[in-house]
Amino acid sequence: MNAIISIFKKELKSIFYSPIAYVIGAVILGLAGYFFSVNLFVSRIADLTGVFMNLGVVLIFTVPALTMKLLAGEEQAGTMEFLLTSPISVFQLIIGKYLASLVFFLFITAFTLIYPGILFALSAPDSGIIIVSYIGFLLLVASYISVGLLCSSLTTSQVVASISSFGVLLLLWVSSWLSSNTSGILSSFIKTLSMSEHYMDFLRGIIDTSHLVYFVSIILVSLTLSAINISRHTCS
Amino acid sequence: MIELSNVTKKYGNKIAISNISFFVKNGEILGLLGPNGAGKSTTMRIITGYLAPTSGIVKVAGFDMAKQPVLAKRHIGYLPENPPIYKDMTVYEYLNFAGELKGLKGKEKARRVSKVIEEVGIGDVKNRLIGRLSRGYKQRTGLAQALVSDPDVLILDEPTVGLDPQQITEIRQLIKSLSGKRTVILSSHILPEVSSLCHRVAIINKGNLIAENTPQNLGKSLMGHHKVVIQAKGSNDKILEILSNLSGIESVEVSKVLNDNLCEYTIESEMDKDVREQLFYAMANNNFPILEMRSYVMSLEDIFLQLVTEEPVISAKPQWEAGKTK
Description:
The complex is a heterodimer.
Chain A: H1 2-17, H2 19-43, H3 49-77, H4 80-84, H5 90-111, H6 114-122, H7 127-153, H8 158-174, H9 176-179, H10 184-193, H11 195-203, H12 209-231
Helix pairs in contact in A: 1-5, 2-3, 2-5, 3-7, 3-8, 3-11, 5-7, 5-12, 7-8, 7-11, 7-12, 11-12
Chain B: E1 2-11, E2 14-24, E3 29-33, H1 40-47, E4 55-60, E5 63-64, H2 69-73, E6 76-79, H3 91-101, H4 106-119, H5 135-147, E7 153-157, H6 165-178, E8 183-187, H7 191-197, E9 200-205, E10 208-213, H8 215-223, E11 226-233, H9 236-245, E12 249-259, E13 262-269, H10 276-285, E14 290-296, H11 300-325
Parallel strand pairs in B: 3-8, 3-9, 6-7, 7-8
Antiparallel strand pairs in B: 1-2, 1-4, 4-5, 9-10, 11-13, 11-14, 12-13
Helix pairs in contact in B: 3-4, 4-5
């Protein structure tokens, strides 16, 4: 537990020390503000569905920019040797790093709370949908980060890690497009794989166990595979 | 304290180290020597648990690295070839982080961190970002990291690289002062460093352990006989006659002619026989003054070169010739 906290603190510090974090924060929040205002002025409906849907896409581009360095960066800097020869388990290393990135995105997400605030000040939006949307959004972010971490564990190059996680996330997002042109088991399988399908229900205010299971599975599988990857060549 | 038995590491088909076994006692300093790419770093990485061996067993402080890695790693301080530093951390933050990972807490951590900062002499840069430090300070910070938990076992991969001569002396002094309490394995290219610091030397070439002994014994076993070099004044022929008539002497040759009346002679005797006294009286009785006499001891450089160059010559030649005849 202590090791997880040490890794977590160190990682969070290094995220906030790096300019990349501020650029990512600015891009996400800037675009969120734009989506929110356009949505509000054009449709004049007090809901955040459009904002959350678009942010889901924006994060496909921005999450890999942060997660790419989590493990590949350590390899590149030669500090992985230091971490893996310390008396900690790979599991602790992975969890510490994962939680630090998650907290960073939670921090950014906290700034978006201003939008529901504005909606509540101006009218009476459906608070249930907004709360469930936030739950869905956080699950989405948490899954994105785990996929980014997995890609970062596969390579020593940060660029490769970033581009590959971007590709995987985008594919998971758009895989539902194919489901309308297929039928039967294949169609439902593709639909089940698609992140946007699962995410969409949250934005409609629906909490379905199958969606929870989907996101939690993505997170657990990605984290486990990352740990296996890192410990493949070492004694841990 | 450290035990390797039949450790082999393969990368695909390439064998990085093959069947290496050795044992390092408590409190001993073992020097790892070998040309570039011989497998020194691989060996060290396997001992520290960073790499898992393809086969074989590594035990540190009684713990099997494959079965109880966390317990084994708790005893190890490791300085890799390139100091594993975070450029965006200050020296102080970094050492605290390293201490935490190694299980130090609270006051004990603070005490150890300030102690190592003092020991390796980085007090005046402790609040600076590591990325801004010179190579020597980075290296020392890396060394401080290895020492921070006060480990029983230190694995140092070329610890004095990048340091200036004064720092090298200081770090060597530090390593020397650590022995006795701690078991140290260090690799180096600087042979005098190894011979002055290490109790024992292991020479690795092309992934094989080709020799392992104290520096003195290595020299003796390779030379096979005792050599004395003298400079003596007088008629060359007569001196040679006197020398070759002495008992216990195997061969005499003129190794250098300085002028008509002054030559240098290399005298080989049986291994266990010291002929220097006998030599002195024989020459003195015949009125041939000895101007200089020295025992020829094989330096670690000679040992290293002899051991390392022997092998590739033998194994490389037939391959090349075989290729040609085809």
